[in-house]
Amino acid sequence: MENQTDLIIIGGGPAGLAAACSASSCGLEVAVVDEQSSPGGQLFRNIETPLGQSLLDDGDRQRGLELVRNFRAAKIKYYPDTVVWGVEPNRVSCTDKDGARLLHGACVVIAPGAMERPVPFPGWTLPGVITAGGADILLRSGGTLTRESSDPVVLAGNGPLLLLVACHLLDNGVNIAAWLDTGCWPKRFAGGAFMSWSFLDAGYMSKGKAMAKKILGGKIPFVTGVKQIRAAGDTRVERVVYEKGGKRHEIDAACLLRHEGVIPRTHILRSMGALHRWDKVQRYWYPVTDDFGATSIDGIYLAGDANYVHGGDASIIKGTLAGIDVARKIGVITKGEAAFRSEKHLKQLRRIRIARSFLRYMFAPHPDIFGVPDETIVCRCESVTAKDIRKIAKEGNRDVNEVKLHTRCGMGPCQGRMCGTPLAEIVAAAQSTTPDKVGNLHIRQPFRPVSLENYCRVYTEEPADT
Amino acid sequence: MKNGLQPTVTLTVDDKEVTVPTGISVAAAVLGHLHLGCTCVHPVDKTPRAPYCLMGVCFECMMEVNGEENVQTCLVSVEDGMVVKRQLKVPEAK
Lengths: 466, 94
Ligand code: FES
Hints:
Largest interface: A-B, 51 and 43 residues
Strand content of chain B: 25-35%
Distance between the termini of chain B: 48 Å
Number of strands of chain A: 21
Number of strands of chain B: 7
Strand content of chain A: 15-25%
Oligomer: heterodimer
Keywords (chain B): Oxidoreductase
CATH topology of chain B: Ubiquitin-like (UB roll)
Radius of gyration of chain A: 22 Å
GO molecular function (chain B): iron-sulfur cluster binding; oxidoreductase activity
CATH architecture of the largest domain in chain A: 3-Layer(bba) Sandwich
CATH superfamily of the largest domain in chain A: FAD/NAD(P)-binding domain
InterPro entries (chain B): 2Fe-2S-bd_N (IPR042204), 2Fe-2S_ferredoxin-like_sf (IPR036010)
Bound molecules: FE2/S2 (inorganic) cluster
Organism (chain B): Desulforhopalus singaporensis
Protein name (chain B): 2Fe-2S iron-sulfur cluster binding domain-containing protein
């Protein structure tokens, strides 16, 4: 059957592409399934077009182009515009324009990347409020955030991505009316203590410095210690209201970008029951893997930021390592050969990990950001409010899955992707404990919506062939 | 923006024609190029909603594409001649 291959890779971003290239260069037959229509993922989105290249800095553009070129040149089967909704060891179920498809492979590398930490606040469902990453995607699609370039845009939150997006906005002549910082200053100082390690990673640091300089030069009004952000407006955002030093402030905004850092996308692995660990500084769950990305499930690997968020260059290394280890596991290269091929990459990865340890503290999310007012919609899909959740949690339901049953929080089409994080934070706060003590939403397959027809096609008869 | 060589496609959104760069998503075309603001009315609380994440996480970008309803448009690339409709009808009470 032609849908049989050695390795199936889920995700066409830096990690997925690197894994594909390294596995294929070891002699494996590889198939890559990608939600997007061209390889690149979020970081190198549309990199094969002038538009996609225009917002990348020189280093990233070079790296991205080289990666995609190698990928295209190798004999790798590529399935673009394909949504994966089921993964088991040895097989992957997905849907594309022509219907459902079942792929068989000896190993699977999962590389879905990271997503922005979803943080609810009153008014966050209003049109005009988007994530910083979403805003960047609009810019990289040749679009603008507001109709007129003079319309005020407000940035709020904390995290390196916000810095990058702010630079892109300045380059595009956007009127940034304010930057409302919600970061955790004591942790930032702790981050400073680790900063001495960052000399190991001079390239990354100088990039950060250049960005900071641009922001300062852009003269953006920078407000620190901001709390209780809300978006106000009738049918779209018109004002941003916030508290600072116990006082209420208001600012006009045609668009509000909220960003509170980046977390791994764990849906696929959680649906398979893989082992995860809680990071108490960054406040997220991440899958447990070895240096090569092998998870607690035999034959299932994880690569890139979905493993632990280290950034794009680290993702390429993680992908490369996963590809090599799969080749060793399947037996097309020897243990010695694998060690030889991976040595350099392992060293690089360790270096990056140490060098960036300060970022973990520097951009730690402030736990207070989840202390949202009762009326806040937490589950966007089912319109469940913080009040609904707190009430059920205080009645003695300790586990988020019990709270889900009572409130419907997490039962909508996004299957808890957006509300899972705040749900755990709010339930934990209501019981004066930490989110790792209140369980994690159970994710079931299919973990993305699929029509009954396509679902049955995969499990009963022959899926679409091409 | 320096996109002189960028090829484009033309699609219709709510009976309005719009020309946008190839390779971008339908959600990005409607939000970033047409600035239509709200793209759907929420089936549960009936408030106006718009794409929030633009990368397949939030499911707030549901629109009708070529006759098919509830398409997650941030994961669908624009195509020449595509017909997109915003889902603005307030759903009937169940
Ligand atoms: S905009 Fe979030 S899923 Fe499409």
